[in-house]
Amino acid sequence: MAQLSRFTAADFPTTLAPSETEVAPLKGDQQVPSGLPGKGMAQHPMLYIGEGYNKILLVDKGKITWTYSTGSGWEYDDVWMLSNGNILFTRMQYIAEVTPNKQVVWRYDAPKGTEIHTCQPIASIRYCSF
């Protein structure tokens, strides 16, 4: 929670970073059923990734406050906000860590013929499974 303000700071990038590739906008054509408990997206801050939509979304107070896009192709499978505010994610063919300013600070490419589907931060060590 303490890191959320880093994603809406005055120097927050509003254009794609050199490490990003745009994807087509997500189309929300599903009606939300009435009578559900809670406040929808405004209930909790969250990181969102969706299979087939290669953009990471950070939602706070019901609004998208930060995105990171890696273009079409391989799907995202896992995403975490680290204690330093960086985002750790998997994208089948690689795992990467980006800063709130969208700089890639760490990346590991899957060995040929393998895929990376999960990641989990443990202290300052990053693990992935194939």
Question: Overview of this structure, please?
Answer:
The protein is mostly beta strands. It is built from no helices and 9 strands. It has strands at residues 46-50, 53-60, 63-69, 78-81, 87-90, 94-98, 104-109, 118-122, 125-129. A 4-stranded antiparallel β-sheet has the order 4-5-6-7, with no helix packed on it. The chain has a 3-stranded antiparallel β-sheet with strand order 1-2-3, with no helix packed on it. The chain has a two-stranded antiparallel sheet with strand order 8-9. Strand 1 (46-50) and strand 2 (53-60) form a beta hairpin. The two termini are 30 Å apart. The model has no long low-confidence stretch (mean pLDDT 79).
Q: Which sheet architecture does the biggest sheet show?
A: 4 strands, antiparallel
| DSSP helical segment count | 0
Question: By helix and strand content, what is the structural category?
Answer: mainly beta
Strand numbers in spatial order across the main sheet: 4-5-6-7
Proportion of helical residues: under 10%
Please provide the count of β strands: 9
pLDDT averaged residue by residue: 79
As a whole number of angstroms, the C-alpha radius of gyration is 15 Å
**Oligomer description:** single chain
Uncertain regions spanning at least 5 consecutive residues: none
State the end-to-end distance: 30 Å
Instruction: Tell me the fraction of residues in β-strands, as a range.
Output: 35-45%
Query: Any idea what the shape is?
Result: globular
SSE succession: EEEEEEEEE
